[in-house]
Design brief:
Number of helices: 7
Order of helices and strands: EHEHHEHEHEHEH
Number of strands: 6
Bound molecules: magnesium ion, zinc ion
Oligomer: single chain
CATH superfamily: HAD superfamily/HAD-like
Strand order of the largest sheet: 3-2-1-4-5-6
Shape: globular
Length: 191
């Protein structure tokens, strides 16, 4: 007998949960969680979603930071959220540069597929939320619903989005608005 599948919200990190920077987030001193992020994640958790981060960290491959520093940032993120009783189920990140042609750098679905398999997830019942086109492409390729948030440093214009091959299912101002939207969708789904 197989156990029922889990549902998840897959989240981009930089520009979605925390302030992004053109110079990359290279150390925990540069890490600034958006003040509304804990409230948003609390909603997802209450709705029964696993919370999984899928992130590109090419600053490692570019030699601007180290795997150790990225792990430390992620530990800060996890412990900060733990104080609000939010647990992150898992974090996957790609350390490679675009030229490395790996399968785990978004829009590649390597890390997402791994997460789906390792945590027994129903992709169609899950969401991928991020601030860039790559996030939307990644989520859509795996069959998740996608939400674009406008808190990144290069937030795409509405007109540009119309020309994307995969358009987001929804666009939200930020992760909290995205969580409120998912909450509404869940309510109508359970009716
Ligand atoms: Mg981002
Ligand atoms: Zn990679």
């Amino acid at each position: 007998m197989t156990s029922p599948k889990n549902r998840a919200v897959f989240l981009d990190r930089d520009g979605t949960l925390n302030e992004d920077s053109v110079d990359y987030i290279k150390s925990s001193s540069e890490f600034r969680l958006f003040e509304f992020t804990p409230s948003a994640l609390r909603i997802f958790q209450r709705l029964g979603f696993l919370i999984i981060i899928i992130s590109n960290q090419s600053a490692i491959g570019r030699g601007l930071t180290t795997q150790r520093a990225v792990d430390e940032i992620n530990d800060v993120l996890k412990s900060t959220l733990q104080e609000s009783n939010i647990s992150i189920t898992d974090i996957y990140y790609c350390p490679h540069k675009p030229e490395d042609k790996c399968d785990c750098r978004k829009p590649g679905t390597g890390n997402l597929e791994r997460a789906i398999a390792e945590h027994n997830i129903d992709a169609a019942g899950s969401y991928f939320i991020g601030d860039s086109q790559k996030d939307i492409q990644t989520g859509a390729a795996a069959g998740c619903k996608s939400i674009l948030v406008k808190t990144g440093i290069n937030s795409p214009l509405f007109r540009a989005i119309q020309n994307w091959d995969r358009r987001p299912d929804f666009v939200a101002e930020n992760i909290l608005e995205a969580a409120q939207l998912v909450e509404c969708l869940e309510r109508s789904r359970n009716k």
